Structure formats: C-alpha cells, structure tokens
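Lab notebook, bench 4. The sequencing result for the construct came back, and we need a structural model before the next group meeting so we can plan mutations. Quick request posted to the team channel:

Model the 3D structure of this chain.
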Amino acid sequence: MNNNDEIKRRDAEQEAIVRALDAKKRKRILIKVIVWVCVALALLTVLWLVLKNCSGKGEQKSYSFDPLSQDYGAGFYEQALDFDIFTDEIYADKDIGVRFYADNVEEYFLPEDRDGATSQQKLFIDYFNAAIHGDGKTLNTLFTNEYFENAGRPIKRYPDKFQMQKIYAIRVEKTGVSKTEGTMEGTMIYEQYRVSFIIKDNNGKFRPDLPEEESSIPLIYDVITVQGESKINRISEIVYNK
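Done. Here's the predicted structure in token form:
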C-alpha cells in the first residue's frame, strides 16, 4: 500500500469517526428536544387544567339575596295587617324621602316628586313607597322574571298585601359605570346601586335581617333598563374584606 492509499484510508476512518460522533451528538440533541417537548406539554396540560378549574368556578350559579328565605328567629314587633304606621307620631316625623347619589350629585325625592325623576329613580321611589305601604302587588311588578326565577332557586313573590313597613333614612348610591348592550328589545342598560335604609319597629315581613332600631345593612341592587323602564334584576349582599 503506497502512502496515498494510507492517507486515504486514515481520512476515511477519521471521516467515519466524525460521522459517528455527529450521529451521537444529533441523537443526544434529539433526546433533549423530545424531553423538553414532553416537559412543555406537561406544563401546558397543567396550565389548561388550572384555567379550566378557574373557569368552572367562575361559571358557578350566583343567587340573589332573599332575606325572607332565612329563619331569623323571634324578636320582631307584632303588627296587625291593617295597622296604619302613620298613626305612629314618632315615625310620622321620620324622613321617608329617597336620597340618590350619582356622579357626585345628590338628589332628593318624595313619592309625589316621581314625575321629575329618571326611570331608575322612579324604580326606587316606587319600590320604597310600595314597601312602606305593604303593597306587594306593586312590588312584584318592579322585578324581572329572572329575579324571581333566581337561577333555579325561585324567590317567592310578595303577597298582594303585607304589613306596612316603617322605612326611613333611605339612601341609593350608584356604583360604577353603566354598561349598555344591544338586544332585540332595544338598548339594555345595566347599573348597580348600593341601597340602605332603616326600619323602625321591624315586623320581619320585608327585611327580617334588620332586627334592631337604627341598624342598616346595605345591599347591592342590579338594575336593568330597557325602553325607559327600569327593573331590579338581582340583589346581592356586600362582601367586606377582612
């Protein structure tokens, strides 16, 4: 074998060694890529499960607050169905007007002032006027059907007549920004209001969760307005951060 042949043989051996090393290197790289792909897929699977779980929690049904569905025990004032609360001179001196707060503006309405009010203001004026007079027939017209259906946990409608309520110190405050949505019926306006009031001599027929004089537990009222008519769609308790 001459020198040229020897050189060619060595070159071929070195080339074979290089190819073998390159093949091993490519194999290691391929194994690493496969491992990283598996890890990425595992992380994506975990992330998907977490997001699905969170989404599932967000889709849980949200029920309206219904104080009459709970048992608050005894301790309420006895009151006849036909008792006229305005014969109580102390209550007769109370302020039964509705104070509205929206966009840093305060407005005050008595029932006889409703003609100059917006549809949302008229809703609350009528709501409290009906509650004060124990007019359940009118009250029932101020809620949407969805409120009474309550996501499968129905809320009972008010009886046509119940004991009058000594309600006063009424405050209705608009919270947040109105949201609008186009529907077949027209533009629908969604609004939330923080509502509070006091009941003197609570007889437990309207807000039994207000058992004591001078106590007020605000609630959030979701109001929907369509074609100039406003109705209460949901009532929620306020959750305070501890």
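Residues 54-59 have pLDDT under 50 and may be disordered.
Will bring this to the meeting.
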